[in-house]
Amino acid sequence: MATTFSVGMALNATSHPKYEVRAAWVSTEGGRDWPRGLYDEARQKEALVQLLDKLDDANFNTVFFQMQGRGGVAWDSSYYPAMVSLTGDGSIGTAYDIPQFVIDECRKRHIECHAWLTPFAQGSRQDASRYRLNRHPHISVSHPELCVTFNGTYYIDPGVPQGREMIVGSYREMLSQYNFDGINLDLTSYDGRLFPDDDSYDEFNTEYLTREEWRRENMTAFVAELAEMVSETTPDSKIGVSTLGVYKPIFGYDNKSAYNSACQDPVLWVDSRYADYLSPRMSHEESLGFSKNLAKWTELVPGAVIPGIMAGRLTESAVSVDDLTRQIDAIRDDEGCIGVAIDGLSTLFGNGDKANEMRQSLASDYFRYPAHIHPKNDLYDFAPNPPVNVEARYTGNGYAITWEEPFPSAEGKPVKYYSIYLSDGHGADTSNPEYIVCAKTDGMEFFYPAKTAEGLQFAITAFDTDYRESLPAITKSALDDIYLPVYFYYHDGAIYLSDVKPVERLEIYSLTGNRTMHKEIGASQATVDCVRLTPGVYVAKAVYSDGTSSMHKFAR
């Protein structure tokens, strides 16, 4: 089910990439980032709106929102009690639909919302006791046969197939109710070599694997089962995995590794298309192999790495803002990365000199301009059609820009939002985020303030739900008529062409380069019958009298 991103869509080594995942982990465990001890519905909602506004203003575009922790969950579950950090009382459920509120508020800001989940760790005995009066008791009470204790924490034993099935069933329950953009798995691992799984190892190790091999097999089986469920329930949802910052030990650096220490094989999960992206938590400094470990991740799974940096470490005297910004530089310099994730929002948005300095560095430099999510690497890259009837009129204190929705695309993907750029009227450099005046808007109107009528020109593009961007529709002049660049769309056996200059001819080619159709046009508007084309994917080439041309892919 998974859809990875192509290397060509990964970050380039520019200071301000147009496509970049900018994610933030929002921790609800212990109320760390939210709701921070607030249990009243109105105050919780207000606090969440304020937090998401801060993320939106800082040009974040993704949140990993914690929906599970310490044996409780944020949704009305038939498997688990409601998180005590959200309710203040382990004996009651949530007072309102928290997941839907979170998703709705993220949608308003066009921020992707991924459910951050911790499948196996279930909290301490103290955590369990808080839920003793809940209609859904702690898992150690409802399913003690699935649990073990280790270092004072309850775990669902990953080696017990029924345990993995129950977890996947609980996530199916969640996804059947809520349309998250993705799932971010955390602690999908074994907690140390001494993990007490002797009984399950003896019973379920039917292939006589070593302990470590068997544990990795269990983790892979869980992620595979989850991926199958997601493909059935919400097939457009991404699956990501947060891992230790090291895949396998690198000579010279003594770090715990995902493969050996946690018995994970996240590279295999991406290669097998069980996961779309990895978010290794890169908490170690350069002296402990940050760049080398980053390079190893991107060498193995290019185009699927969103490294996590730890803003919470700013509370440590030895960690400076420069340490973290250098990590962002290293991430952007590595073409195999598709973004960056930041943990520790309570620190980042808190008080203190280093927190203020970090926020200023993001606002004035690293996240100064907005960034879009990478488009999916689909087999047929059909972008949406551009908006139509674009107008920009000076009203005395600025420009009133309006447009109408595009005609349906070949794939029929709906428009997710529109982006507005400044343009010189001859084209639009939509690759440069510095020209964006509005990154994401639902509506089909926008006001751009300007003290004088300077004849500014604008370009409007449409993004579909796979984050593919249309060609720009460009205003010729804010004071004159509109300019629609070559307008092309295919619908029900016909191609529709429109432009301000005549199209001399239309040529249609197969994907192998063979010309299958030739039509003389000689007009700025035309409808071309294509019913004789056999079903398939084609490239249409509109040729103008001045020798220029434009090309468009469509499916018959």
Please give the share of residues in helix.
10-25%
Structural class: alpha/beta
The neighbouring-strand order within the major sheet is 11-10-9-5-2-1-13-12
Largest sheet features: 8 strands, parallel
- Domain count: 3
| Number of helical segments with 4 or more residues | 13
> Which fold name fills CATH's third level, the topology of the largest domain?
TIM Barrel
SS elements, strand count: 25
Distance between the termini: 26 Å
Shape: globular
Describe the model.
The chain has 556 residues and is α/β, with parallel strands linked by helices. It folds into three domains: 21-68 and 85-120 and 165-366, Glycosidases (TIM Barrel, Alpha-Beta Barrel); 378-484, Immunoglobulin-like (Sandwich), CATH 2.60.40; 486-556, Immunoglobulin-like, CATH 2.60.40.3080. Helices cover 25% and strands 28% of the residues. It has 13 helices and 25 strands. The protein has helices spanning 41-57, 84-87, 98-108, 125-130, 139-142, 161-177, 198-204, 211-233, 266-271, 290-300, 321-333, 345-348, 353-366; strands at 21-26, 62-66, 68-69, 72-73, 112-117, 121-124, 147-150, 153-156, 182-185, 238-244, 277-281, 308-310, 339-343, 388-394, 398-404, 415-423, 436-441, 445-449, 457-464, 473-474, 487-491, 494-510, 515-529, 537-544, 549-555. The strands form six sheets. It has an eight-stranded parallel sheet. Strands 21, 22, 23, 24 and 25 form a five-stranded antiparallel sheet that branches. A four-stranded antiparallel sheet has the order 17-16-19-20, with no helix packed on it. Helix 9 links the parallel strand 10 and strand 11. The radius of gyration is 26 Å and the shape is globular. Residues 1-14 and 478-485 have low confidence and may be disordered.
